[in-house]
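Example 3.2
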Amino acid sequence: MRIVIVGAGRLGYSIAELLSNEEYDVVVIDTNEANLSQVRSNLDVLTILADGASPSAMMTPDIRSADILVAVTALDEVNIVSCVLAKKNGITHTIARIRDEKYLAEPESYLKKNFDIDLALSPELICAREIHRLLRTPSALNVEDFADGKVRLFETRIADKSPLAHLPLKNLTLPDHILAAMIFRNNLMIIPHGDDKLLPMDNVYFIGDAKEIDSLSQALSAKSTTLIRHVMVVGGGRTGQTLALLLEETGMTVKIIEKDPRQCRSLSSRLKKSMVLCGDATNIDLLKQEGIDDTDAIICTTKDDKLNLMIAALGKHLGARKTIVRVARNEYVSLMEQIGIDVVLSSRLLAASEVLTFIRHSGVVSVSLLEGASVEAVEIIVQKNSPVAGKPLMDAHLPKECLVGAVVHEGQTIIPRGATILHENDRVILILEAQASASVLSYFKGGL
């Protein structure tokens, strides 16, 4: 499958990297030779110096022979024109990065009908929604829903005094519909067994029935965390503004700090309940004056990754109970977590996971990139005549790099055992190492 990516910026580079690692035939187009040079130096892809919104460029054989076009430049209009031209030149599917609210406010059917866009991506909106979900589950570092909300994947960090610490998993009293699916320790993925223990500072992923997972997260919250009611958002750009609007709807008290006076005026006109402060969040006196020590969560969403890190660390030092940082550079995720930031979200990886879901199709319902994209949680539908259909898991001979975390059969969530049989049309949630994704997913696809 050939995939053309228009735009070799940060988001385009991340998508190209993920797809090239899975051995797709990737072509990257950009008008900036410096961006293309960086892509060529690091990725095994074809690069073309051209304007993706140019009719003549779109007619070149290397581009018009593609199956999918992904337009992710910084300009909505360029992305839209690229998609329109792609469809007119026979490219079957299109994905566009869209940032302007006047487009995002329209239904997906409008974008598809008028601009030939099959999937609209807004990294800022995706990131804001993800932060909003996490704030509603205080003990969570990550929450992912699958199978129309029937299955939930819940990540938490084991505290020093956690009742789960130092106990072998076989001695943990977990509900029947919950599985400890993965431990992430010292940047290594561990698929746990009964004798493995959860250690302080481990990131552990539980998967299972969504209601049971909610009960577990509430129990952990009651022991180790406080419900989040007072939130400070640093950065009034698209992510910060969208997040504040979402938090207002859930009744949280929100203070948003932004340096740009014009942006502050815009925020004040749109936000109904939030307090908008025009100032510098690196100012310790300002943070103290605005009650940082009484803040349940400080969320840094500026465009500057280093600034976000500094402000989050400062907020933590001054008493904020939870720190959340949005980053653009994927490589900063693990670094920030190691120095004590509670949750680090890469807006690029969140958007790239939606692109992967769309491109893989063939039964793949969703893809969530975990731990800096080194691990994936994938929901896939068992296809007719696939290698696993009709077999007990013990006889499926799945690669060791994956774990079947949950199965939804005829609407019922099952934590699978070796004797569990996978049926055609079952929804299966897999935890797998990203580098093995292609080989693992082939077991669930038909016609092999």
